[in-house]
Amino acid sequence: MGNPLSKSVVILFLSAAGVLLVQMIMYAGFTLFRWEVLRSWFDMCNSWFFKWGMPFMAILLDALTWTTVMAGIVMLGIQMYSYLRVKRNFAPLRRKDQEQAIAQAYRLPRRRLVIIEQEQAVALTMGFIRPVIVLSTGLINMLEEQELEAVIRHEEYHMQHHDALRAMPAYLLSKMMWYLPILRWCHHVLKISAEVEADRYAVARTGSAVGLGSALLKLARHKPPVPMNLSHVSFADTPINIRIRQLIDPAEKPRMRLPLLSTLISLPVAAVLASLLLPAMM
Prior knowledge:
- By secondary structure, the protein is mainly alpha-helical.
- About 65% of the residues lie in helices and about 5% in strands.
- It has eleven helices and four strands, in the order ααααβββαααααβαα.
- It has a four-stranded mixed β-sheet.
- A hairpin with a 5-residue loop joins β2 (about 125) and β3 (about 130-135).
- It starts with a helix and ends with a helix.
- About 35% of the residues are buried.
C-alpha cells in the first residue's frame, strides 16, 4: 500500500466499520429471534434510550441498523446474481480454441482462463472460490506479444491471491455504510494497492516494465470497460498515473491523500455511533 499512514487509516476505518456491522447484525438477529446469545450493545443502547426518555434516538438507531443490514443482504444478492449473469453471458462468447493455445503458451491452468469474442479490450479476474482470468479477443488483437504477456502475468497475480474475494468486504462496507463515505476511499486505496502489487509481479515475471507500461498506455486511450456490479479486479479500471510512476520509479511509495470532505463527514458519524455504545458499557 506504500504510505504507512494510508495503511493505518484504512485498517482503522475498516476495522471500526466491521465491529459496528457485527453489532448491527447481532442486534437484528436478537430483535427477530430473541436469542440471548445475539444480544448486542445496540440492543442495550436501544433499551437505555427508552429508559431515559429519548425514544427518537432509539428509532434513529433502529432505522440505521435495519437499513445497513438490509443493504448488506441486497448487496450479497446482487453479487451472486451478477456473477451468475456474467458467467452465463460469457458462455456463448467463449473462444475455447484460443483458451487452449494461450493457456499452454503462458503455462496457465486451462480451467482458469476464459477468452471471449468481443471487440472491446477486456482484461479482468473474477470469481471468489476459483477465480478465472477473462481476456477479450479485442485485447489480444490490440496488444503486442510482450504487452499481452505482461497483462496476463498481472491478472495471474490477482488470480493466485484471490484479489476479487479480498476486495469484496471493503466493497460491500462502502456500499452498505453509505453514511461513512471514507469507506469508499478505503476501498479505492485497497484496489490501487492490489494493482501496484500485480504490476510488480508482472514486471518480475517478464523481466521488464516496457510491456506493461505500453499496455497501460494503449488501454488508457481506449474506451473504458463497462462498470460491473460484481466484485472483480480489472487491469484498466484504476487510475494509471500512480501505476506509471511506480514503473518509472519502483522505490517511490504511492501516497493516497486522505479526502478532506469524506473524513469530515465520517469522523463525526463514527464518533456518534461509538458514543451510542457507551451507555451499554456503563
